[in-house]
Amino acid sequence: MPPKRFLLIDDDYTVKILFEAALEELEQPVEYAFQPGAPEALAYLDKCRQTDQYPDYILVDLKMPVMDGLEFIAHYEKEFSAARPATKLFVLSSSISEKDRALALRHRLVKDFITKPIIARKLAGLMAD
């Protein structure tokens, strides 16, 4: 079984470090890419399209400079979702606001709203779904 592929999009490098630690705790092989912003992530996904090596899971921060997570989702939906409908998209946030949660979950592509920090048990759970 090939390793599951993750794409983490977050402007906070601490989140990247915690994400890496959570991945190390998993009992299955995974690969991941990190992009510090939505524009970089869209460029990365364009390269994925060329090789047909899309991520299985995308975790995107809700609030980022330049382009926020909701704007990323809108671009992703237009440009990439048809090519890889099996990719699961999750919104990450340090916010506990129900308004933020509702905004994220109104997008049909968003599978869940995950409050930071991401932990191995949560990653394992989203991979099991």
Description:
The protein has helices spanning 13-25, 38-51, 69-79, 98-105, 120-128; strands spanning 4-9, 30-35, 57-61, 88-93, 110-115. The chain is an alpha/beta fold and 129 residues long. The chain has a single domain (4-128), classed as Response regulator (Rossmann fold, 3-Layer(aba) Sandwich). Strands 2-1-3-4-5 form a 5-stranded parallel β-sheet, with helices on both faces. Strand 1 (4-9), helix 1 (13-25) and strand 2 form a beta-alpha-beta unit. The longest helix has 14 residues, at 38-51. The model has no long low-confidence stretch (mean pLDDT 93).
By DSSP, the count of extended strands is 5
pLDDT < 50 runs, ≥5 residues? none
**Mean pLDDT rating:** 93
- Give the C-level CATH assignment: Alpha Beta
Report the span from N to C terminus. Answer: 17 Å
Give the helix proportion (percent range). 40-55%
Biggest sheet descriptor: 5 strands, parallel
Rg, Å, rounded? 14 Å
Fourth-level CATH superfamily: Response regulator
Order of helices and strands: EHEHEHEHEH
Number of helices: 5
The geometry reads as globular
CATH architecture: 3-Layer(aba) Sandwich
The spatial strand order of the largest sheet comes to 2-1-3-4-5
Structural class, from secondary structure content?
alpha/beta
CATH topology: Rossmann fold
Give the total of domains: 1
Our estimate of the beta-strand percent is: 15-25%
Key phrases:
129 residues, alpha/beta, Rossmann fold, 5-stranded parallel β-sheet, globular
